[in-house]
Amino acid sequence: MKVELWEIFMALVRAGLWEKETDLPVVPGLTDWESLLEASRAQAVEGLLFRGVSHLPDSKMPPAQIRLLLMADADSIERNSGRIASVQDGVLKEFARHSLPAVVVKGTEAAKYYAFPALRESGDIDIYCPDFRRALELFPHAVPKPDGSASFVRDGVEVELHPRYFDLHLPDSRLPEVPSRAAELLMLSAHIFKHAAGAGIGLRQFCDMAAAMSHPYDHEQFRESLSRAGMLRWHSLLCSYLVEDLGLDPVHCGSGFAPCNPSRLRKIVMDGGNFGFSGSLRSRSDNPGIRKAATALSLIRRIPFSVRYAPREACLGFVSLVGGNLTRTNRT
Length: 332
What we know:
It is a single chain. By secondary structure, this protein is an alpha+beta fold. It is globular. The chain has 15 helices and 5 strands. Helix 1 (3-18) packs across helix 3, helix 7 runs antiparallel to helix 8 and helix 8 (203-213) packs across helix 10. A hairpin with a 2-residue loop joins strand 4 (150-154) and strand 5 (157-162).
């Protein structure tokens, strides 16, 4: 996508994310609107594009056929969100009936920070299970995965059970209490880093992070958690992108925020799309082995990036890769 069109796309995403009026420097033609719609699907932010368009002046509205497609996408996302919410509620009730703790993580939980939660597209349900052994006994049909999690399908929705809350190589004693705002923000940040340093990451997860950070949290507690994880430099890069591209108010980044150039992160987002599935070998093959090899190749190519911004996590991630523990990229 041309830089000028990408800037229009981001202006509309920002308008949808923060529910603010916006305008465009030019009136996109039909072909450009089709490209914008395609980009929103590749980045899994169709709901935000739909909301962003609603904040345009009448003179800049897209053609009728584009508006109809946007409404159809939005309706589909809302219906899917309702179905996922119903399944999630049922699964959590089973945990509760057996007095088992369970914490929903990432996608469906991050949606609560949006003005219109049902328009945040979700692919599956992720649940952290502190007593993982008993969780597997409760759901014996769950299939184990290479990363240590297990999943099952209910009413067409994949449910993933996780033995750990964080994508970090730190003992629980050095991590914030779960659930807590500091834990949630650290988990979202680490999840973005993991994919940015590997197969790729799209706009949806950055919107989750921006929306979550815009709500009150203890800045010092979060910064201390980042410091223990060795991710302060990564946090500066991440916040720089959230501020510069997504319009997050810098005040939400904390007093220690040091802005830097987010162009490298911007390129990862533009090139990879949702979890790196745009324009890569992973998107062109149905073979799990080929997709896994493509993920490993991406991780190796991004060694300079990952070592620069979170060296501890990068090095331990490479050790895991060599040991055959590369996680399967999820669809959250």
